[in-house]
Specification:
Helices cover 20% and strands 39% of the residues. By secondary structure, it is of the alpha+beta class.
């Protein structure tokens, strides 16, 4: 368990560092990584002849995959992060879903580029991306100041088939 928390923290720190580096390399002063870029264009879910559902996401101008998912039936914007071990929800997004961890629920220690922090472990009943649905998904709720965007991490991605090729992320179930 401790190794999982350490892995999550390291992955989050690396991801935040990469976002900041990309922001700096695009030469756009005044824009911080806390800004959510427009959602990547997602194709209409396609049913393949083998019966699988496929969704294709296009990277945004910064090279990230942004997607609007439905969590518990409600829309939530995410950045896809294969380096995050879990879905990570900012407190404001969790609150919109009716998830309100108490102060004593924040027992998972985290370390990001913003420093040390704590997260609350939660269980999501259903997470859906354009028709691809995963049930009973573990996630973390983190204070808003610790994370600039919600992350769609491996607790979702490991339960679907996904491939990355030439600026496209293809999810299949």
């Amino acid at each position: 368990m401790r190794a999982l928390v350490i892995f999550f923290c390291a992955a989050a720190a690396i991801g935040i560092g990469m976002v900041r580096k990309i922001d700096q390399s695009t030469g756009q002063p005044g824009q911080s990584s806390a800004m959510v870029t427009p959602l990547a264009a997602a194709s209409t879910p396609q049913q393949t002849s083998s019966g699988y559902r496929t969704v294709t996401l296009q990277r945004d101008r910064r090279g990230h995959f942004q997607v609007e998912a439905r969590v518990e039936g409600r829309p939530v914007e995410f950045m896809v992060d294969t380096g995050a071990s879990m879905i990570a929800l900012r407190e404001t997004a969790a609150a919109r879903l009716g998830i309100h961890p108490s102060a004593r629920d924040y027992t998972v220690r985290t370390q990001t580029a913003n420093g040390l922090g704590k997260a609350a472990r939660v269980q999501l009943n259903r997470v859906e991306v354009n028709g691809i649905t995963v049930r009973d998904v573990e996630a973390f709720v983190v204070p808003d100041e610790q994370l600039s965007v919600n992350l769609l991490g491996m607790s979702f991605l490991s339960r679907v088939k996904w491939t990355h090729d030439r600026g496209r992320l293809v999810l299949e179930q």
